[in-house]
Design a protein that fits this description.
The complex is a heterodimer of chains A (400) and B (266). Chain A is mainly alpha-helical and 400 residues long. Chain A is built from 18 helices and four strands. In chain B, strand 8, helix 8 and strand 9 form a beta-alpha-beta unit. Classes of the chains: A mainly alpha (400), B alpha/beta (266). Chain B: InterPro entries: AAA+_ATPase (IPR003593), ABC_transporter-like_ATP-bd (IPR003439), ABC_transporter_ATP-binding (IPR050763), P-loop_NTPase (IPR027417).
Chain lengths: 400, 266
């Protein structure tokens, strides 16, 4: 068994595709891709934010002051268009002649004098979330309204402190009992297993195909079967190689994430990230790695069984495609709001590991749940291995 | 010696997809199963070469896979000396060397790593690998490229390494499944010389082929499998006499056209 394991490992580590998947992808390609996406995303958001919003004011005579506020506002640029109906307002935005149409109530001044609330309308395309038009126009209107409120209250003879009390009669101070680590764990903790667990799958996928269907295709599996080594030993040797590769992928990814987080944290002076990661104890990191062992074992056994069944590399790839989608379902659980690790969840393989990693990152894990997690996941892994061994012993599978 | 008695083997048609692609289904298909072998018998003594002939899909590869314990027969017996191959497959595998047209080598390992890997799986000691194996390397002239990766070797070089892999554990029986298929003249010559050498060293050699000239050159015995049955199994001389002009092709066609089988007893 160990001879098969050693041989498979040496062979895999000499394969450039394997090295790409287990080292280059998590260490270089993923960080570069995520960095690039982040850079492009933030650049696009900044560009949109800095862009002047082209507006049309309908009934500007209703409030000369508002017209003037908008005209001199640095975020807005006036566009001269004659628009008379709602359809025309919408059409002007659709045809990109304007970004925003503000329709003032023609009776605004009278309504203001009589103490009535005036209804205004704002038209814009909310689909472009990066533009922030809605927020910008709300800020501009709020600024205008505050100014009017101040004037009215000052006319009625209120002092500056009274004005402040009127505008903010209650001031609520919110004290968050969650520390930085818990907040980080809640927001990003569910996302981490969403990356790690599929990586255990993808890390196992290529070696599984190579060691099963690949060997069939190259004709080496038959030579191996003719040696005086039991099929159990052959399949366990292959299984261990795949599991080690999957674990290596996950470990290198964890290392890469921590490494790049520290680098980015220090480069951009974001001390929060590094301090939060530093607050996670080594024991918790080790637990995270240990939790991934049975998960990798499950994936390795299932993938090897599929690969052995397939008679070619391509056929194995076709069978494995849907598996990547199936894996998403159990790891969505920790991303759902309100889902917490309890006895029931701790018994559901893969979901339990995803939840446990999230809670480990948050620092809120109840360590007593680790036992049912390891037992249930371990049993599922064992069942997968037993099935794989049985599958490998079938002539109809090996010699399809 | 190796003796094969009345081997039968069926495959389920629902799971054995290869059957649909390569084998004739009409005569041997029955109740959802494919009768790959329905009675194969032959024997081969030490120092003899047995040529295994038959049309595509006749059952040659299935027979050879049973001989080498990769497949289990439904009934029948295979014995290598005193070892029952079906009851003691691990002991039998120690006695068998196997070679096919596909080299069965790992491309990303060196030639030496390949040979040593299979040697160790056969329980060959490090001492043997360090001393006596060198003679095999020299005989096959592979010492120069032993430390090069197999994927970088030519087909002929790979086939030589494959031979070394097949005989490194000194097998009593050598099974060759169409070993020259797809090879160039030089590589084919290497294989044929090697078969002759093994014969001279007292190994029982069973090789399946479609090349009758190779059989004529090397074989002492001939077995023709047709539709899963050994239609002929006797000496090369008896096979030649099937044709008035001792032509091997006509002897072969004669066997295929007959309904009665001819199997010489041990």
């Amino acid at each position: 068994m160990w001879q098969v394991f050693n041989k498979e490992l040496v062979e895999l580590l000499r394969d450039t595709k394997t090295l790409f998947f287990i080292i280059a992808l998590p260490m270089v390609v993923f960080p570069v891709l995520f960095g690039l996406i982040g850079f492009l995303g933030s650049s696009a958001a900044l560009k949109e934010h800095q862009k002047m919003v082209r507006y049309v004011l309908v009934n500007p005579e209703a409030s000369a002051r508002f017209a003037s506020t908008m005209f001199y506002h640095s975020d807005f640029e006036k566009v001269e268009l004659e628009l008379g109906s709602e359809d025309e307002y919408i059409n002007a935005i659709k045809t990109d002649k304007a970004d925003l149409v503000i329709v003032l109530n023609p009776n605004f001044e009278q309504q203001l004098q009589s103490g009535e609330t005036s209804q205004w309308q704002v038209f814009y395309n909310g689909a472009n979330v990066l533009s922030g038009i809605g927020m910008k126009v709300r800020d501009a209107v709020d600024e205008f309204v505050t100014h009017i409120q101040d004037e009215i209250l000052a006319e009625k003879g209120f002092s500056a402190s009274e004005l402040l009390a009127f505008k903010a009669p209650v001031e609520v101070e919110q004290i968050d009992t969650a520390d930085e680590r818990e907040s980080f764990g809640e927001t990003l903790g569910g996302f981490i297993p969403y990356i790690l667990i599929p990586l255990c799958l993808t890390g196992a996928m290529y070696p599984a195909i190579d060691l099963g269907a690949g060997e069939k295709e190259r004709g080496t599996i038959e030579t191996l079967l003719l040696t005086p080594v039991s099929r159990f030993a052959i399949v366990i040797g292959k299984f261990l190689t795949i599991t080690v590769t999957a674990m290596m992928t996950a470990l290198i990814t964890i290392f890469s994430m921590v490494f790049w987080s520290f680098i980015i944290g220090s480069l951009f002076d974001v001390s929060q990230v590094s301090s939060i990661l530093a607050s996670v104890s080594w024991f918790d990191y080790v637990l995270m790695v240990l939790l991934l062992v049975p998960v990798s074992a499950i994936f390795s056994a299932i993938l090897l069984a599929i690969s052995i069944y397939a008679s070619s590399f391509k056929e194995a790839q076709n069978y494995m495609g849907p598996l990547t989608i199936l894996v998403i379902f159990p790891i969505i659980a920790p991303m759902l709001p309100g889902i917490k690790l309890n006895l029931t969840w701790s018994l559901i393989p893969i979901s339990n590991v995803a939840l446990a990693i999230k809670e480990l990152l948050k620092g809120t894990i109840d360590y007593s749940y680790l036992l049912p997690i390891f037992v249930s996941t371990g049993l599922f892994a064992l069942a997968s291995i037993v099935f794989c061994v049985y599958w490998f012993s079938r002539e109809s599978v090996l010699f399809r | 010696m190796i003796s094969v008695e009345n081997l039968t083997k069926t495959f389920s048609l629902t799971t054995r997809s290869n059957v649909h692609r390569t084998q004739k289904l009409d005569s041997r298909q029955q109740d959802g199963v494919f009768n790959a072998l329905t009675g194969v018998s032959f024997h081969c003594q030490r120092g003899e070469v047995l040529g295994l002939l038959g049309p595509n899909g006749a059952g040659k590869t299935t027979t050879l896979r049973i001989l080498s314990s990769a497949l289990k027969p439904d009934s029948g017996q295979v014995r290598i000396n005193d070892i029952d191959v079906i009851k003691s497959p691990m002991a039998a595998k120690q006695k068998i060397g196997f070679l096919s047209g596909k080299t069965g080598l790992y491309g990303r390992l060196t030639a030496r790593e390949n040979i040593e890997f299979f040697a160790r799986l056969h329980g060959v000691s490090d001492d043997y690998l360090g001393n006596e194996a060198l003679q095999i390397y020299e005989n096959l002239a592979i010492s120069e490229f032993l430390d090069r990766r197999v994927e970088h070797l030519s087909t002929g070089m790979q086939q030589k390494v494959s031979i070394a892999r097949a005989v490194i554990h000194k097998p009593d029986v050598l099974v060759l499944d169409e070993p020259t298929t797809g090879l160039d003249i030089m590589a084919t010559e290497t294989i044929l010389e090697f078969i002759q050498l093994m014969k001279e060293q007292g190994t029982a050699v069973i090789f399946s082929t479609h090349h009758l000239d190779e059989v004529g050159m090397l074989a002492d015995r001939v077995t023709v499998i047709n539709n899963g049955v050994s239609a002929f199994s006797d000496s090369m001389e008896a096979f030649r006499q099937l044709s008035p002009d001792r032509n091997l092709r006509r002897s072969f066609m004669h066997v295929l056209s007959q309904e009665v089988t001819h199997v010489a007893s041990v």
